Amino acid sequence: xxxxxxxxxxxxxxxxxxxxxxxxxxxxxxxxxxxxxxxxxxxxxxxxxxxxxxxxxxxxxxxxxxxxxxxxxxxxxxxxxxxxxxxxxxxxxxxxxxxxxxxxxxxxxxxxxxxxxxxxxxxxxxxxxxxxxxxxx
Length: 137
Prior knowledge:
This protein is mainly alpha-helical. The protein has 1 helix and 3 strands; from the N terminus they run H-E-E-E. The protein has one helix at residues 13-64; strands at 101-103, 112-115, 131-132. It has a 3-stranded antiparallel beta sheet with strand order 1-2-3, covered by helices on one side. The longest helix is centred in the N-terminal third of the chain and has 52 residues, at 13-64. The radius of gyration is 27 Å and the shape is elongated.
């Protein structure tokens, strides 16, 4: 009788470790790019939200003859008026969860809308930089 060798199909521990190391290296190279793009997307989202708030403010001015002052704040846009209409369903928070700062009259125009960026503090650079509706993208 002849003995038949049986080979078990599968991967060795070494092969699995090599694949995991390769995946780890690729993730280390690619992950920072995705994180950077996510930060850029939040800045762009803040600019779009500021544009939308600015449009609602302009509609408010058309009906009331003036922009709401700083003490009224942006919340007046989401509060139903005497006719039951409102200019926005809700005033959004910036992409980092902070309220937008509203100044009327503004330093840079009729009104200023400002986000303090990721750190929520005035000033900063990079992702922590302030974003204003008067700034060019």
